[in-house]
Amino acid sequence: MQELWTNILQTLGLAWWIEVTTETPSCTYYFGPFSNANTANAAKQGYVTDLEQEGAQGITVAIKRCKPSQLTIPGESSEPAKQNSPQLFSSQA
């Protein structure tokens, strides 16, 4: 019954989600949906711990009502993409 209620809330955009933003890697993650903020709050530490074990740094967490279109959103890199660029190596040390 709880799952049905959560699905209804999610359809209406009223479900609660855990939004975790990391500096390294620059990324936003959404975990959920949850039927209420207390349930989301109780679950957040497990997600943070998993990200810390994977080496994520600069972690911030928010509990919010939303309806994310993506569960993982990579941030913009400060370096331009260098696909198909030749790599140059120097023999000088």
Short overview:
By secondary structure, the chain is α+β, with helices and mostly antiparallel strands.
Layout: helices, strands, pairs:
Elements: H1 2-12, E1 16-22, E2 27-34, H2 37-53, E3 60-65, E4 72-74
Antiparallel strand pairs: 1-2, 1-3, 2-4
Question: Could you walk me through the main structural features you see in this protein, from its secondary elements to its overall organization?
Answer:
The chain is 30% helix and 26% strand. It is α+β, with helices and mostly antiparallel strands and 93 residues long. The chain has one domain. The chain has a four-stranded antiparallel β-sheet. The protein starts with a helix and ends in a 19-residue tail after the last strand.
Give start-end ranges of low-pLDDT stretches. 77-93
- End-to-end distance, in Å? 67 Å
What sequence of helices (H) and strands (E) makes up the elements? HEEHEE
- Percent in helix: 25-40%
Give me the oligomer status. single chain
General form: globular
Rg, alpha carbons = 19 Å
Strand percentage, roughly? 25-35%
Largest sheet: spatial strand order: 3-1-2-4
* Number of E strands: 4
Count of alpha/pi helices: 2
How many domain units? 1
Helix-strand category: alpha+beta
Mean pLDDT: 82
Largest sheet: 4 strands, antiparallel
